[in-house]
Write a structure and sequence with these properties.
Helix content: under 10%
Structural class: mainly beta
Distance between the termini: 119 Å
Number of strands: 53
Shape: rod-shaped
Strand order of the largest sheet: 1-2-4-5-6-7-8-9
Strand content: 35-45%
């Protein structure tokens, strides 16, 4: 080999034993040319025998990792080069049959052979496997061998397919054998640590025997590949006890061969002792493997994968990354990164807030890059929904030994469908569960004990956070059905006179008035135990259009209406209303801020639990009075101030029995020549204490009534207006009350909306929202419409009390509410002009299946919107 040091150019250096062999070779070549039977190739002279060293027998060793070769194996021919060969024509070298090349890369701690990069590229371009060697400059300085090794690794740039790294050992650096052995071992170990493969050693037999004391420990440590330099012999001498039994792998058999493509003269020729270089080829490789290969994580949690870096002849750091898109809200990190060892931890965190990570299967592509190699693997990550957040606004309604609980769904469902809710009572832990809806009933509670209720939602990841507790409620024994007691109509509230209400209603401010125990006349008193009352609500003096809601509890945002009113129109509506705590009723005027209105309430009867009062018998609506056709009254129009009495019992197609104490129905005025009001009473009076129906001039309007009958089953009617005024009156009966328990008992409800043709969920005909069309019969179901038992009309109900409202009508006409389908109703429930939102209280018998039918009577093509709010129901005995 020819070497160059950083400071000066070295002369050709040969192993000492090879020098004499070279001289002998020359003599033999001359003799062979003159006398031999054949010629010898000058470019690659066959080696001749040389004396065996004293260290042991001469053997022809196998390639590393193989058994001793048979003499018939054809060795591979190669060469080694450095800067001394100058520019080399590598295609010609390839054509000359050279099957490998070893080239100088570095020397000492800083020198780089100036032709290394060119030679490396040239050999690799034509497909000649190459190895790079380092010319050793041993030194006694501490760590100097490691510095030389690091310098070599940095410059050599070995990649897959190159041959093993090589150490060219020809100098001692004045080190004694033991020190030189330590230096060599340090260099070898450092390169092994850097590249992951054990280098081969280039040395002459004499140098190893004399300068390395024929050391065997290096070969025994795994450095088994020997590149022996032994020129001019037929078989090389192998030191260190035949390299600890491994023999030689490469043999530099001459330092003066000739190869096509090299024009600078002599070049070192080498032989590989086998037919395949695979065993001495550098195969740096690694694989990245995720462990486990797949796992699940709930959204918002953190999980880890162990990323194993399985290395083969590979030591450089591996930089890891995830190259495939990850779901939104996901963060990840590798530690350590880059990996110098064998494992890294991939930490993946998903998000359940703000930017959330969608549930589903993700297969991140994990990529490792190092040493010019790129390797990937896939992991499988199943993102499950997070447990749901807490449900909100739990609210309970006390029942008999139970409670109905409803709530609002969690704001965050965790990303997965909620499959169930569980409600727990405290104390006691009684529960109920539901897989649909936002309500359920907790049963088995103790009456008289206060309970709070909390709710937890569950999805496929499990139960979530428990809600806050509801307000406490106390279950009580059910109130039995109530029976009816009629009273002479009398006024309980009149804000104009500070009766019951001390001032006008103010928009948005609930106002209460007391109903029970208000009169000094015991016959007119509503007892404390009453659960509901019948009567008439009148609004006058309103400063803005709007509506009034009559409810059993204070509310600034009522969900039902009782009386709709324009500006400047005295308007009344018959009501059957459940009483609130303390026998109170509440009024809320919904209008623009600052608006005021005066309110009047006249009571006509009450319902008391038990069977001592009258029970109700519903009827199909039937007309008992129509002064236009002299039905009920034969004298024609009613005159202002005149007392009129008409028969209720014992008349009509379905006569009301004589023992009836009261009736429900609808009173209508039409054709009036003067503004005023009707007073419908048990006994006609010229100075009535209450009003039933207020109206202006020329407006047909109606009002629902529940009224106590007078002597002989009659009712009195008076028209209060200016003298000389006349009006036509109509009365349709819808049911009656009779003594005893044979009829239906009454159960009051908080006002609840059952029909609103403006809303899909409450539309008529069980279909999507649609206005009523004139002449078309429409139905809606009233029973079992609310999951809360305290708000639902049960399937067995025979009649309802409530409020019917019309709005958005495009033509004047009327609505008829009936218990059976009809396109030609014989009664009316609510009369109205165009553009006037108007309401009327009703008590109405239910049809088959809990249905009510509604028809809009107007000119063809007209439409109207209808609303119905229920306030109670009647159940038959049992």
């Amino acid at each position: 080999m020819i070497h160059v040091t950083p400071a000066f150019e070295r002369s050709r250096v040969r192993p000492q034993s090879a020098r004499y062999a070279g001289i002998l070779t020359g003599i033999l070549l001359i003799l062979a040319a003159a006398f031999g039977p054949g010629t010898v190739r000058a470019a690659a002279p066959l080696p001749v025998s040389s004396p065996a060293p004293s260290s042991g027998p001469v053997t022809r060793g196998p390639a590393a990792g193989s058994s001793v070769r048979s003499s018939v194996v054809a060795p591979l021919e190669g060469l080694d080069v450095s800067r001394w060969q100058a520019t080399i024509n590598w295609p010609q070298v390839k054509a000359a049959g050279k099957q490998f090349v070893v080239m100088k890369a570095t020397q000492g701690t800083a020198y780089v052979d100036p032709m290394y990069a060119t030679n490396r590229a040239g050999a690799m371009d034509v497909g000649i496997p190459m190895a790079a060697y380092h010319y050793a400059d041993p030194d006694s300085a501490a760590g100097e061998a490691v510095l030389e090794a690091d310098h070599y690794v940095a410059v050599a740039g070995l990649t897959a397919g190159n041959l093993l790294p090589a150490l060219d050992l020809e100098k001692t650096g004045a080190l004694a054998p033991a020190a030189l052995q330590a230096w060599v071992r340090a260099w070898l170990d450092e390169v092994t640590a850097k590249l992951g493969i054990q280098p081969m050693i280039y040395v002459s037999p004499n140098f190893w025997s004399s300068k390395m004391a024929n050391n065997t420990s290096i070969a025994q440590a795994g450095y088994k590949v020997l590149w022996i330099a032994n020129w001019g012999v037929t078989s090389p001498t192998v030191p260190a006890n035949n390299w600890s039994g491994n023999g030689w792998t490469f043999w530099q058999y001459t330092d003066c061969g000739h190869v096509a493509g090299i024009t600078t003269g002599c070049v070192d020729l080498d032989r590989f002792g086998g037919s395949s270089l695979a065993a001495v080829t550098y195969h740096p490789d690694f694989a990245v493997v995720a462990n486990p290969t797949g796992q699940s994580i709930t959204r918002g949690a953190t999980t880890t994968f162990t990323i194993n870096v399985n290395r083969t002849q590979f030591v450089p750091p591996v930089t890891l990354s995830v190259t495939s898109p990850m779901p939104s809200g996901t963060t990840l990190a590798f530690s350590p990164n880059p990996v110098t060892g064998t494992t890294s931890t991939l930490t993946i965190t998903t998000s359940n807030t703000n930017t959330v990570t969608p549930p589903g299967v993700v297969t991140p592509t994990i990529q490792g890059v190092g040493g010019g190699l790129t390797r990937t693997t896939l992991a499988k990550l199943t993102v499950l929904p997070a447990p749901p957040g807490p449900p909100t606004s739990p609210a309970a309604t006390a029942l008999d030994a139970a409670a109905y609980v409803e709530w609002v769904a969690p704001a965050n469902d965790g990303g997965g469908a909620i499959d169930s809710y569980t409600v727990a009572a405290a104390p006691g832990g009684k529960t109920c569960s539901t897989t649909s809806g936002l309500f359920c009933t907790v049963k088995g509670l103790d009456n008289g004990t206060a309970y709070t209720f909390s709710v937890v939602a569950k999805n496929e990841s499990g139960p979530g956070t428990t809600s806050a507790a509801s307000a406490a409620v106390t279950p009580v024994q059910s109130i039995p059905g109530a029976t009816y007691f009629g009273v002479t109509p009398n006024r309980l509230a009149d804000s104009r006179k500070k009766l019951g209400l001390d001032k006008a209603l103010r928009a948005g401010v609930p106002a209460a008035f007391k109903v029970t125990m208000r009169s000094s006349d015991s016959k007119l008193n509503i007892p404390t135990g009453a659960i509901a009352v019948t009567g008439n609500l009148t609004i006058v003096g309103q400063t803005a259009p709007g509506y009034v809601a009559l409810t059993e509890a204070a509310t600034a945002k009522p969900t039902s209406s009782t009386l709709n009113l324009p500006l400047g129109d005295v308007r009344a509506n018959g009501v059957t209303a459940p009483l609130g705590t303390g026998g109170l009723l509440w009024l809320t005027y919904v209008a623009k801020s600052g608006a005021t209105a005066q309110a009047v309430f006249d009571v006509t009867g009450y319902f008391l639990p038990g069977a001592s009062g009258a029970t109700y018998v519903p009827l199909a609506p039937a007309r008992l009075l129509d002064t236009r056709f002299k039905t009920g009254l034969v004298n024609g129009p009613i005159k202002a101030g005149a007392l009129n009495t008409f028969q209720v019992t014992g008349v009509g197609a379905h006569p009301i029995p004589s023992d009836a104490i009261g009736v429900t129905g609808n009173l209508t005025v039409t054709g009036q020549t003067g503004a005023g009001y009707f007073a419908l009473t048990s006994v006609a009076s010229a100075t009535p204490r209450s009003s039933t129906l207020n109206f202006p001039h020329g407006d047909t309007r109606a009002n629902g009534v529940t009224i106590q009958l007078g002597p002989g089953g009659t009712l009195g009617l008076v028209y209060m207006a200016k003298a000389g005024s006349t009006a036509q009156a109509i009365f349709d009966v819808t049911g009656y009350f009779e003594p005893g328990a044979s009829g239906a008992s009454y159960f009051a409800l908080p006002p609840t909306r059952l029909l609103d043709t403006r809303q899909t969920a409450l539309a008529a005909n069980g279909a999507s929202k649609a206005a009523l069309k004139a002449g078309a019969s429409n139905w809606f179901v009233t029973t079992d419409r609310d999951p809360n038992p305290t708000l639902a009309v049960p399937a067995g109900a025979v009649a309802l009390t409530g409020n019917l409202t019309v709005t958005g009508q495009t033509a004047a006409g009327y609505l008829a509410l009936t218990s059976a389908s009809t396109v030609k109703p014989t009664t009316s429930t609510l009369n109205f002009p165009v553009g006037d939102t108007r309401a009327n209280g009703v008590t109405i018998a239910l049809g088959a299946g809990g249905k009510l039918w509604i028809i809009y009577m107007a000119h063809i093509g007209a439409t109207a919107q209808a609303v119905f709010d229920v306030t109670g129901y009647f159940l038959p005995p049992g």
